[in-house]
What does this fold into?
Amino acid sequence: MRLFAAVVPPAEVLDELERAIAPHVGQVPGLRWPDRDTWHITLGFFGEVPEGVLPDLEARLARAVRRHEVLDLVFAGFGAFSSARRGRVFWAGLSGDSMTRLADSVRAGARRAGAAQTDGKRFHPHLTLARARTETDLRPLVESLSGFAGSPWRAEAVRLVRSHQGPHVRYESLAEWALAPSRRD
Ligand code: 2AM
It folds into this structure.
């Protein structure tokens, strides 16, 4: 089964993003915009994982997530991989607390469980809003959204998600673990 771990922002925060991009959806040739109910911030992509690995994977992810505090975040800035000029993935970026340590722990836990880690790229927290099959100049899109400022929000939990491939990719949440309370509160 194809698995990844992700944070899903609160609905109000997704509403803001949805309103910001609405004038652009369907307007850029070649860009496909996934349904809003699939939006997430990937912490680790584990690729195809044998079903037998799942119990150990879940136990290790639960332990990893518990060790990290909730994160205070804000969506700030849009961009594209690999660059706005040669964009394949159009995303909303994040600022606030760093998600890197949490992502590192989640990926390390998955590796130890034996999940086939296909995601060796440097972690760059983002929420994918659109994808292109070929490199597309997304500079006008990125620039037209440069004034966006989202509301602060708190990441409180991490989900393990199964991706069902097919003509219409479907995500199934398999488990969710709460992050530790903040010591700053
Ligand atoms: P993306 O949003 O930047 O495309 C499910 O596919 C999630 O895992 C997506 O959010 C995707 O990131 C992420 N992911 C990371 N590496 C991936 C890979 N090699 N193949 C598919 N998805 C990957």
In short: The longest strand covers residues 71-82.
